Amino acid sequence: MVRRRQSVTIKHVAADAGVSLQTVSRVINSEANVRPEMKARVQASIDKLGYVPSIAAQRMSGSKSYLILALNDRERTIEAWKAREGNDWVDQMLMGGMLMCAEHGYRLIFELVDTHDDNVQRELKAAIAALQPDGVILTPPHADNPLITDLLTAHRIPFARIGAETRDGAIALTMGDDRLAALAVRHLIAKGHERIGFIAGSREYALSGWRKRGWLEAMTAAGLATDGLCERGDFSYDSGEAAARRLLSGKVRPTAIIASNDQMAMATNAVAHELGMRVPGDLSLISFDNTPVVRFVQPPLTAIEQPVADTVAKAVELLIMANRGEPLPPMPVVIEGSLIERDSVAAPRRG
Amino acid sequence: MVRRRQSVTIKHVAADAGVSLQTVSRVINSEANVRPEMKARVQASIDKLGYVPSIAAQRMSGSKSYLILALNDRERTIEAWKAREGNDWVDQMLMGGMLMCAEHGYRLIFELVDTHDDNVQRELKAAIAALQPDGVILTPPHADNPLITDLLTAHRIPFARIGAETRDGAIALTMGDDRLAALAVRHLIAKGHERIGFIAGSREYALSGWRKRGWLEAMTAAGLATDGLCERGDFSYDSGEAAARRLLSGKVRPTAIIASNDQMAMATNAVAHELGMRVPGDLSLISFDNTPVVRFVQPPLTAIEQPVADTVAKAVELLIMANRGEPLPPMPVVIEGSLIERDSVAAPRRG
DNA sequence: TTGAAAGCGCTAACAC
DNA sequence: GTGTTAGCGCTTTCAA
Predict the structure, then answer these.
(1) Predicted pLDDT of residue B165
(2) What is the largest CA-CA distance in chain A?
(3) Interface residues, strand C, Cβ cutoff 7 Å
C-alpha cells in the first residue's frame, strides 16, 4: 500500500507567495477581500507550482465536494444496456453532464439504484454519505419517487428532476413533450393526414401522459376525431407491436402513427410491413427519442429528437447555480427537442 | 451555502458500540487484531446507524480514495458522440467499469483528455491532484502515450492499459485481436473463400496491427495468397469506402472482406451494393466491434464482438487487486471476443 | 488486542 | 484586506 500525499498543497503555494493559507484559499474560491495584486501574486504561484486543490480536503472542511450524482434506475439501465438495441441515453447523459461538470470543475458520478426496492433509501443514503454530492440528477422513474426526493430534501442536497412534474419550485426539467407531440401531429396534418394514431408509453412515466396530451390536444384543436386512435404500450418493442396491430386492425385504420418511443415505432414499422403496408406510402410514422438506430431502419424514421445531453447539461448547470445560491429561473426549465425529417412520412394515399 | 456535515460518523458508531474510533476503523477496513465479538458488536452498530464512511475523510487520512479514473481521448470521444453513429463504447466502458466498481465500493469517474495536446500532463496532473484516484484506466491511444504512463508511474498510481502493447509487466488487457482476426479468416475459409480481403485500421492503434497480423498469419497458414488483398483505412466510414473501392476494383477482387471496424464494414457494404454486388451472394463481409448498428444494416453483419464491458470490468478488478497488493496474473490479460454470425457471410459464387 | 494522539489539506469563523 | 485558529472524519502512528 502506497501512502499517497498531495504533492503540492495550499501550504506550498502560501509559502511560495509569502501569504497565509487563507489568502490562497480566498483566491482559489474567488472570494472578495483580496487585493488584485495579492491575487495576482498568489495566482502566479498557483500556476508556477501547478497547484490544484484536493476535492477531498475541500469537502472535509465543510465546503463543496464538487461531485454531482446522476441516479438511474438499475434494472432498466442494465436491461437497456444488455439488449444493445442502440439506445444511447446513458451515453447522452454522461457526455452532456460530464462536459458541463468539467467546465465548472465538477465531476459527474453515475450510479444505479433500484427504484422498486425497499432499499432505495438505504442505497441512496450510502451514496450520499460516501460522496457528499453537491447535487443529484434524477431521471424517470426516480424523479417521481418520494422516497428519493424526500431523502434528498432532508439532507438539503439540491436535486434536479428530469421528465417529472414540477413541484414546489424545485429544479425540474422537461423536453417539452406535449408541444413536441403536437408538433408531430401538425406535421402530419400538413401532409394531409386526418386519422393519426398514437401509441402511448408506460403510465409510470409522467412524460407518457404529456406526449399523449400533446397529441390529443393538437388533434382536437384541428377538429379531428381521436376515438379508437390511441393504444398504450410500455416502451418495449413487443408492446409496440401489439399496440400497432390493434391500431391497424381497428375500425378507424390510421394513415399515420406517432409512437412514444423508437422501439415501439420500429415495431409498428415491422407490423405495417407484415400487413403488406408500405411505409410511408400506406402508413406514415413518427417516433419519439431519435436514438441512433432509427437512421438504420428501412425506411429511416422521421423522429422527435429528445435533447438528452443538453437537458442533463442544463440540470448540472442549475445544480451548480443552486449551490452558489444564485437565483434560478422559473420551473420547469424546458429544453425543447425538434422534429427530424427522414423518410417515414408522406401524404396519405387517396381514398 | 449549506454547510453539510456527515450525519453518522465513525464517532457515533464508536459511542454506540462503546469502543474507540480505532476499533471501528479496524472493522471497516477488515483489519486483523479485532476479536470476533468486538467486530460483531461494532458491525451491529454500523448496521443500526446506517453508517457509511466518507470517502473524502478516508482519502484525507492518507488511505484510499475509492475512485477509479477512466481516461478517454477527448477529440475522438466527442466526435463519436456527436456523430451518433450508434457506437456504444462509452456505454460499454461506463457500465462494465461502474458495475465492477460498485461491487467493491469504488466509483468510476469518466474523464476526457487531449492526447495530442501538450497539456496532457497538465490536465492529468490536475485530475490526479483533485481526485487522487486509486487507479486509472487507459484506452487507446492514451494507453500508448508515454507522457501519460510516465506521469502515472511517477505518481505511483496503478494504471491499466487497454488495447496496448504489454510493457514491463504493467497491467495490460487485450481482446485477443489477432486470434479474432484469424478466427474470421478461418470462418470464411470454411465457407469456401480463398480471396479474403482485409481493411486495416489506423496505425495509431496497436490493435490495428494485431488484427492485420491475425489475418495475414491465418491466410498464410492456409496457404492462401494475400498480395493486393489488404488496404488501410483509419476507422472512419469514408476511409472504409475508399479502401473497399480499391479492393473491389483491384486485380484480385476478393470474394470476402474483413473490415477492422463496423463503420468501415458498413462502408464496404454500401460500396458493394453500389457496384451491383450482392452481400453475401457476391461478397461476404465480417466486421470488427459489433456495435449495435450492425444489426440494423441490410444485411445484418456477421461481426467480431469486442467485449468492451467485460474488459473494462476486468481492468477495474485488476486495479483494485493492485491496490490491495494482491498478486496479479501474467500480462496481458486477454478477454477474448467471439464471432457473431448474422447474414453477411455465404459461400462464394462459383467461378 | 485496544486506545489516545497527531495530522491529512482545506475552509469557516473570527480576530486584527 | 489579511492572518490565526479550530475542526471536518478518518487513518496512521505509537503507547498501553
Answers:
(1) 84
(2) 87
(3) A 5-6, 9-11, 21-22, 24-25, 28-29, 51, 53-54, 57-58, 60-63; B 1, 3, 19-23, 26, 32-35, 38, 60-62
